[in-house]
Amino acid sequence: MIGCASVKTLIKNEPHESASCKAVAKFVSPAPDIRPTYLRLPSAGTQDPIFGLSRSTWNNLILQCKANGGNPPIRSISVKQRHALRGVRLVVVESALEYFAKLETEQTHDETDQQESQQADLRNDFSI
Predict the structure, then answer these.
(1) For the chain, what is the domain count?
(2) Residues 13 and 56 occupy one common structural domain
(3) Buried-state track 25-57, b at ≥16 Cβ within 10 A, e below 16
């Protein structure tokens, strides 16, 4: 574990002299092989630190709504005290990664199909 003094030496360009160790430690990113299981929704007007998505975008992906046809593509859980009206919504990171990988595959496939179609159209346009 990195001590507060070590963290301060790692971050030389940040104004951290008067900050507490906790505030300084948030600037240091975790090791690349450590991945969280859950991601708390960002507060309104901000983006999450992992994917860079806003709260409203996450809501469209994890909650039943018109935007997703009532079938959210990414799993989430709600953590709240018994009989509480409000809780904390957590996104299942593995579900989000699977969904984004699926999107990437679909979009890559669509782009390849478009390029092949355009090439075929060009061949047809220049054929006699």
Answers:
(1) 2
(2) no
(3) beeeeeeeeeeeeebebbeeeeebeebebebee
Strands 88-92 and 76-79: antiparallel
pLDDT tens per residue, range 96-127: 999 999 999 999 887 777 777 777 776 676 66
Range of the domain at 18: 1-30
- Residue 91 has φ and ψ, to the nearest 5°, of -90, 135
Distance CA 48, CA 62 (A): 14
Name the pTM for this structure: 0.62
Question: How big is the chain by its Cα radius of gyration, in Å?
Answer: 22
Please tell me the distance from the alpha carbon of residue 11 to that of residue 30, in angstroms, as a whole number: 14
Q: Which of 82, 88, 81, 72 is nearest to 39 (CA)?
A: 88
Q: Are residues 8 and 48 part of one domain?
A: no
Residue 59: exposure state from Cβ atoms within 10 A (0-12, 13-18, ≥19): middle
Find how far residue 40's CA is from the centre of its chain: 11
pLDDT in tens, 56-105: 999 999 999 999 999 999 999 999 999 999 999 999 999 999 999 999 99
